[in-house]
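Structure request: Inorganic triphosphatase, Sphingobium fuliginis.
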Amino acid sequence: MNREVELKLELAPDAADAFGRLDWFPADSDVATLRSIYFDTAQRDLAGRGISLRIRRANGQRVQTVKADGEGGAGLFARAEWEMPVADDAPVLDARTPIAELLGQGVHGIQPVFHAEVERRRWIVRQDDALIELVLDRGQVSAGDRQAAICEVELELKSGSPGALFLLARRIDAEMPVRPGVLTKAERGYRLRDRLAAFVKAEPVALDPSMRAEEALSRIAGSCLRHYRLNEALLLDHYDPGALHQARVAIRRLRSALSLFRPMLAPADVERFQGELKWLAAMLGEARNLDVLAERVETEELRERWDAVRGEVHGRVQEWLRSARVRMLLIDLVEWLTLGAGLGGGKALAMRDEPAADFAARRLRRLRRRIAKEGRGLAGLSDEARHEVRKDAKKLRYASEFFAGLFEGRKARRRRGKFIAALEQVQSELGALNDLVAAPGLLAHYGLGGEEARLRPKRKRKRKLLGAAARAHEDLLEAPRFWR
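Returned structure:
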């Protein structure tokens, strides 16, 4: 079994020709056509276990490769890998791979599920003291009658420090825009087999009770970055309100993760990333607010004026998403996580080695106490104070979802379900209140201050919402804790 460490970057297809002509590339390169068949069972048993199985044909030879997911998710992939030559396109599933042991009798259901064909151009590049294999892949993945283009760069570390991968990535971006890639070719194939989604929701974070706090941080933050990039890619293709909302949720989740793990991080790093992420969230938030309020616009005249405003803001969103500022923020975050997440010294250094479940329980208790304290007399609080309670409820919900895998057992799962349901109800009621309160200011900001009366009224008025929010807060405090 080998261990590969590679940084995957996405490149616009129309930039691929220019990429191959960069004047600082080595003169020597090799080109090969790679044709791959990916296998799984009809029930996708391998994909469900984070395993990919392919047979690739190149230069007259066939090589079977099995890969197991590692700490990928935000551009950097570190995975277990098993390779062997094979005679034909039939997988060899003996003791040299983990598949037979994992699937048992299910191994007999292995069959082709999709294909990929790419032209691969490869260079060996030296960056400082590191030797890096730089690959440009161009082609497509096919599943049935569906196809999707592939245009990506892979930087695989052959020797030296992983930091060299990021120096090289920035060097490339200075010539043409690149972004961290989060999909393997296998994932592209599986997604192609499914109905293409307009947006992507957050995936469960793979944590287990044996992990240390430092490992939990890496998994959680990497999952948030993956969530963002999947939706950003959709937005860069065309604007969709759902993808915009999910990209914003991903940023909020990442900011919450940084807050949760702040005690073990270098303060300067947290402040730097929180500042940039806050800016990005605000930029996305402006568009989201306009999208939400558009659902309340009834008259044709106001809708035309509102759509014109939305169109301008949507255009700015796509302009900023294409900016170097956003691209470098993403690459900086991936590098920060890869090289140790700027962990602080002293107590912070010791904290990273403690069991993740202990760290999580302590942070969950703290957030719950804060909501209990700040939400007292909820109906009588100011709009601003209720908004703070709403933000804390989001943080607690994200933390509960992040740390779910650390608390096993049927009882813990049942309690967690009830606890998160109570949090969702608090968020829902306080969110409706916030929309009601924010509408006049939003209209005034765009020169439509006299138009509030022409909006479709909310089904529930403020008094009813206040009562519902107060009851939801009480239910949350009565919900049993799922952590120990």
